[in-house]
Amino acid sequence: MEMALRTPEQYLESLRDGRRVYMNGQRIEDVTSAPVFKEAALHLALSFRMSHDPEARHHVLATCPETGEEIAAFYLLPRSPEDLLKRREAIYQVSRYGEGYIPFIKEIGTDAIFALRMIAPQVDRKYGTQYAERVKKYHHYAQAQDLALAGAVTDPKGDRRLRPHEQKNPDVFLRVVDRREDGIVVRGAKCHITSSPLANELLVLPTRNMTEEDADYAVAFAIPVDTPGVTLIANPEHWSNDAFERPMSAKHPIIHAMILFDDVFVPWERVFLCGEWEFAGPLALSFASWHRFTGLCYKGPVAELMLGAAALIADFNGVGGSSVVRSKLRELVIYIENIYTYSKLACYECQVVEGIAWPNPLHCNIGKYLFADNYHLMIKHLQELTGGIGGTCPSVADYRLPELHEALDSYLCGREGIETEQRIRLVKLIRDLTSTCDAGVHMFGTVHGEGTLEAQRMMILREFDFRPSLELACRAAALDVDLGGIKV
User: Fold this and answer.
1) pLDDT at position 380, please?
2) DSSP assignment of 255-314, as one string?
3) Residue 286, in any domain of the structure
4) What is the overall mean pLDDT for the chain?
5) Can you give the CATH number for the domain in which 445 is found?
6) Each residue of 332-343: pLDDT tens digit?
């Protein structure tokens, strides 16, 4: 299979395929030219541009072990801690290439592929299916074509107290409604799917564990975004293309979508799980750890951006170096180093499953929990250092108005030596990180992306080995108890 690293232009051209996308009550005919979609696509195209940038490409390229050819590093199946560190570096560097915001177009999809490559062989051994070979072929196909992938995992869920088969609306979890000689037909929806309107293909996985009665919901597959019956409804954006006023969201918008599957046909060669209900949970958990590892890798540059902005605004305001400022900067440094420590530790202490190096799930969950649970606190530190101007700064249009400019330039100044416009530009960046609609979406995404905080709490207790601690406490207290009967 011929392999090629696509250019940004080739990626953008691949999106002009008639896909059904809606936003704000309108059909989006061309996602590469419509407002906000165009800018979001250009942001994602950074991933392809970086592959051809002589000064940066080494960060995001790897050698295919089967062919010896260059591939996007995101597609490299990790076999060792070193491979995981390479993936970590690729995600980190592409995020910095996006000025702190990751171009989410290969990472989540390959999280899904790697989870499938871990679980599919286990399904095959029990049921005699051929899923592992199908997943492998699909992996090689996506890698060779340098595809843009979205991972579609989260279902609408309906009544959270009920299992999929117990729901009043049977389609609030995506399910198989027909099995044919040439494939399956699925119906339902997936929610909050990052970059999906701008992807080439969707990797669809179950979102939770299943029972035998839920067998029709235990399904995994891959399809092109323009498959008949697929409709994407993008989240509404209160968007501005003014890069002075909105320095991040104007250049780096990230679009999410709800995806409707209206009796969508999937050929058997693209089906990776179908009814093997007891493997839905392991597949979801495997994906969760991969995806939380990805979160650990891309969140560092966001935190770096916040730290840099915090240090600069304190200096521009004339209070740089003060003990109050340094105490808040210290908290941001600790936040960053927590992220980096757990992302590296997850690589070094990985688990090997089906010959695949899997990021340590305990470290992934703790790291993700810490960065998500403390994100709003870091926002608070940045807001506090900025001052009220972060929420009330006059618009750029007013600042540039001749009859207002002189007064605003005089009153909005900071310390001597810093031009007022430079301070305003920094304030606008901080506002876009902390207070705009886009900032609010990022806050929600930090808490709920890669799984909720409660999901991490559950997994931390599940993965942690309590026995050494129990044994130590028993020895210290001279206890003679059966640890098998201790509930934790």
Assistant:
1) 97
2) -EEEEEEEEEEEEGGGEEEES-GGGHHHHHHHHHHHHHHHHHHHHHHHHHHHHHHHHHHH
3) yes
4) 95
5) 1.20.140.10
6) 999 999 999 999
Model confidence at 66, pLDDT cuts 50, 70, 90, reads confident
Residue type (1 letter), 307: L
- 252 CB contacts (<8 Å, ≥6 apart)? 39, 43, 98, 99, 101
* Cβ pair 261, 186 in contact under 8 A: yes
Cα–chain center distance at 227: 24
In a domain, 364, yes or no: yes
Quick check: 191 and 258 in contact, CB under 8 A?
yes
Helix (H) or strand (E) holding 131: helix 131-145
Mean pLDDT of 427-442: 93
Mention every residue, 6+ apart, whose C-beta is less than 8 A from residue 39: 239, 241, 250, 251, 252, 253
Residues 6+ apart with CB under 8 A from 156: 172, 173, 188, 189, 191
pLDDT tens across 276-327, in order? Answer: 999 999 999 999 999 999 999 999 999 999 999 999 999 999 999 999 999 9
**What range does the domain containing 325 cover?**
282-463
Q: Say if CB 189 and CB 261 are below 8 A apart.
A: yes
Tell which residue, 387, 342, 391, has the closest CA to residue 362.
342
Q: How is 371-440 classified by DSSP, letter by letter?
A: HHHTHHHHHHHHHHHH-THHHHPPPHHHHH-HHHHHHHHHHT--STTS-HHHHHHHHHHHHHHHTSHHHH
Q: Name the domain count of the chain.
A: 1
CA distance 49 to 353: 33
Half-sphere exposure of 337 (CA within 13 A, CB side): 6
Quick one: pLDDT band at residue 236, thresholds 50, 70, 90? confident
Q: What are the residues facing 219 on neighbouring strands?
A: 274
Partner residues linked to 175 by β-bridges: 187
Give residue-wise pLDDT tens across range 201-228.
Answer: 999 999 999 999 999 999 999 999 999 9
